[in-house]
Amino acid sequence: MRKLTPLLCLAAASAPGEAFADAGHIAQWSPHPYALLILTLGALLYGKGVHTIILRGAFGRVIGARRGACFALGLALSYAATASPASEWSERLFSTHMAQHLVLMLVCAPLFVSARASQAVLLALAPALNARGLSALLRLSRFVAGPVAVWLCFTGLFLLWHMPSLYGWALRSESGHALEHGSFFIGAYGFWSLVLAPVRGRAPGHGARLLFVGTAALMSGLPGALIALASRPLYQIDSAQAARLGLTPLEDQELAGLVMWIPGGLAYLAAVLGLLAGWIGEAERRALRRAPGAKLSLFLCLLFPMALAGCDDVLPEGSGAEAATIYDTGGNPQRGAEAIAAIGCGACHTIPGVNGANGLVGPPLNRIGRRLYIAGLLRNTPENLEAWLQDPQTIVPGNVMPNMGISKEQSRDIAAYLYTLR
Q1: Is pLDDT of 302 > 60?
Q2: 99 with 90: CB under 8 angstroms?
Q3: Can you count the helices (H) and strands (E) in the chain?
């Protein structure tokens, strides 16, 4: 850490703006021919695929505006990473080159995956392929999209291209440089396709994905740590260009290692946290489905049926129970009883004090004010009861209790009435 601290200060204190201003000859945008061709072709194919989706009336279900925006952002960032002045500097500064790699692998690739670029491109190419060709393409994609193959490709390419000899060749050869960036992007696209895919069917679960990301983060961070902590330059670094930013070749290399190590690690950490959140959410949903009280909740979900004739019965005013309930919920029991009658709860439930509420489909609601749980899984509190009345499908998705469009104020009044049933 004692070695890293001055480097971080150096990176913050450097004056890149001044140095870039001095380097006017590389301050212009210069699109790389290979990159420009691939990005243009990708944009055309994606646009054709989206057009096909629109013609089929599936826009918004397969690909919508949000995914289109992800593609546009990924396209813009890819162009900036390969054609901006920063791209020119990446061929002269090792640290800038590493930052360029991270943008392509950890920002652009996930954006294209989120945009469902492969699906759109496949739709665009489908008319040009016969059934045999399309089938072969799908078989090939399934083979190369396996978790083990993707992990080996992603981490293997990362380690391979950071070998000093291969890195030096990519810098000297224009086609080698394009191959380096292209392979990085393809490996990253496959990697993020597995990480961001919905967890269903035969797709890897959350635990497998955590292992997938964690080991990839370890393998990707290791070269960064080794580069940052090396005691001598390991790569061919342009010392004159590094000096323009006040860096020695070793300092440029150490800064590159830090870029790979810390920002890259944060991207993987964000992915791990996202997977953990998804895993916890899935576990909670499964627990609700498997809880002993869940079955009971399905019956209690019939608390408010779809329709029932009106009811004129109301609570007697001024009772002790009414006063206590107003204090608990802030609602009005009389208005609550009127709301229950208007909504038609008695079609399925027997509700004391509500005229005609003698349904036998759901459980009777007598003494509900003394029960410990609502729907078999929620503590019987005014807040939980009101939430259940307003949106039971969010609490137990798929249960038979429909959302009745009960407002917050109505739920407060209805809860106030139900708590009088003791």
Answers
A1: no
A2: yes
A3: 21, 2
